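Researcher: Can you fold this with S-adenosylmethionine in place?
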Amino acid sequence: MMMNKKTGKTGTSKVQKKADNSSKAKKAGNSLKTKKADFSLKTKKSGSVSAKIKSDKKNSDVIAKAAKRCKVSSKCGGCQFIDMPYKKQLKVKHDRLEELIGKYCEVGEFIGMEDPDHYRCKVHAVFTHDRKGNPLSGIYQEGSHKVVPVDACLLEDKKADDIIATIRGMLRSFKIKTYDEDYGQGLLRHVLIRVGKNSGQIMVILILTSPILPSKNNFVKALLKAHPEITTIVLNVNDKHTSMILGEQEKVLYGKGYITDTVCGMEFKISPKSFYQVNPVQTEKMYSKAIELAHLDGTEEALDCYSGVGTIGIIASPHVKHVTSVEINADAVKDAIWNAKNNGIKNVTFYKNDATRFMQQMADSGDKADVVFMDPPRSGATEEFLSSLFVLGPKKVVYISCGPDSLARDLGIFTKNGYRVTDCVPVDMFCHTRSIETIVLLKRADIK
Ligand SMILES: C[S@@+](CC[C@H](N)C(=O)[O-])C[C@H]1O[C@@H](n2cnc3c(N)ncnc32)[C@H](O)[C@@H]1O
């Protein structure tokens, strides 16, 4: 295992805001209107989507009940489908995928959740105050920086919400001022909680404008007294006028400064800035399906591109000859190296690099790969990444996508370059929202 420090670029560690106000997202919401569905979707100026079922009397009763489920759903806009029965949510998403990629292959049945509530193991609360100075915590209203106060969210881990409420309740007695975005004043900006659903470990990250937390030891003591289940507390400093949640500087206040969790029988270390899938129940199903689709026989030279903390490559490693993993985030690569070692995996090599640049270097060096796992961000792969991949000429590509629009675009490029789509399995990673996760298997045209 090694990391290529010479060719590695300095990575930017980013945690995206929960609110997604991109025009792309708005477009996606609009294009969810589908003839086949018996409901209509309306995209508001903010980009949030409201769904109304037209015909079914039974459904309207369910909706009436569901509307009571979340009092702030209309203000928050994060769960566009919260008022829609779960089966219908899957149907809307399935129809959307068919519209986008149905011309390339049959869209398989959604792998849904038995219990689609409280699945998020990464919970973010933004802190501010009302006009009287009372601390508030909640979620950015979709498409804005207005904070919608939230005590409990149907997507979020319940324990994480309890901890956030406790922290909010402690602020006055510790004289901790919440941040005011307009004036750039105050100390506490955000709290980020990461929960290892299988390990039971909990990391609390306090994002402050300064590295000095008043009465730090007493604050930690009081928080642990209220929540002995917390396994680590990290102070992160973000003093920039930015919409990024996390800053660069970190200080461990309690515990190890990271958590671990298990998925597919392997243990993974997760640091504050590393990417880790937000829905652990579905992640297990998604990784298993991705590896099953690849039909590995133990002889393959595999590539894991956009590898995060190394999960897919490490889980696939017992089934292939060797895996090469590439990821841009330095902290995630460090975690990945730790993860391979901790799981006794010796046939994975990790590189910290931009995936496009790395693929170009591989193509230029005449390297080959038998199978490529790729799991890019929502924007998908770059054209240069794909051109280099075609030079490497893998027999199979397992493309995991959280952006159906970019997936459709990239599948168009694949099919023009000698690949066909043989399988498409959507996995509901983001229940109650319009977001769609899809696993697609592509085969080189000459491969059965
Ligand atoms: C959707 S996540 C997938 C991570 C991992 N496969 C998993 O399942 O946890 C995408 C990953 O791509 C990384 N990334 C983003 N841009 C990249 C780039 N240009 N080159 C390499 N990695 C990148 C992110 O840091 C993130 O870890």
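Model: Folded with S-adenosylmethionine in place. DSSP finds twelve helices and 18 strands in the chain.
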